[in-house]
Amino acid sequence: MHPKSAGPHNTESVDDYLKAILELGGAEEELVAGTALARHLGIRAASVTGMLQKLAAQKPPFVKYEKHRGARLTTAGKMRALEVLRHHRLLERFLHDILDYPWDEVHDEAERLEHFISERLEDRIAAKLGDPETDPHGHPIPERNGALPARKEVLLSNWACGMPAVISSVSDRDPAALREMKRLGLKPGVAIMVEAGTRDRSLRIRTGNCAEPVRLSQALAAGISVIAGGSGLTTNSTTSGVRSVNAGDTNVRANEGGAGGARLRSLRSSHLGR
Length: 274
Hints:
Elements: H1 12-25, H2 34-41, H3 45-57, E1 63-66, E2 70-73, H4 75-97, H5 106-113, H6 119-129, E3 154-155, E4 165-170, H7 175-184, E5 191-194, E6 202-207, E7 214-217, H8 218-221, E8 224-228, H9 258-265
Antiparallel strand pairs: 1-2, 3-8, 4-5, 4-8, 5-6, 6-7
């Protein structure tokens, strides 16, 4: 990827803003409201406004800012955001696969390290891992040239009952939720199906590695993204991340609300958040 841009505004804080706009804007690169950025970053809305104005005024500008509406990334801002995102997800995979960090701890550690690794170290990590396609949570890792494949994902909470699916990614923002997902065997590559019944507070699901259906809270289901899967419930978990679930040509079907979920999750973390 391109070297880091020089200048006074190339800081950890700037990187966090750019990465957040990339994740929240999604594949459609929609305008991201300042209030949404403030919630995502855990800061005051007034601070967001000031930073967006600075990022729009610098040369070259990192964002296009529209007063009272929000911001989207410029080409320069998007390339920097993708570079940081690549660092982050490669670091997560390295910490998980090589240093044996549990998947609920790698996000915070990668957040601290992503701003500082050199391009040489980035290349060495990628080579050591065999150029993985996803991080431990199933999120795609941008290629070195900035390419990031789009995936047609739908939140499990919006997935139609009785339709076979495969978990494609999970949110990495809540360590407690990740620990619960691990306990239930809910990880990328696992086949899953939502059984018919009430969906107000919980979902009744069946997975490829569980003989009996289990109850899943709506809050936990909202952190799991899926793609259309085969008719059989079999486990196909990925541990190395070298091969990701290919959803590019998948015809995703979901109940009402699914299309909105797919749009919001097309790039996020996963998301964002990752």
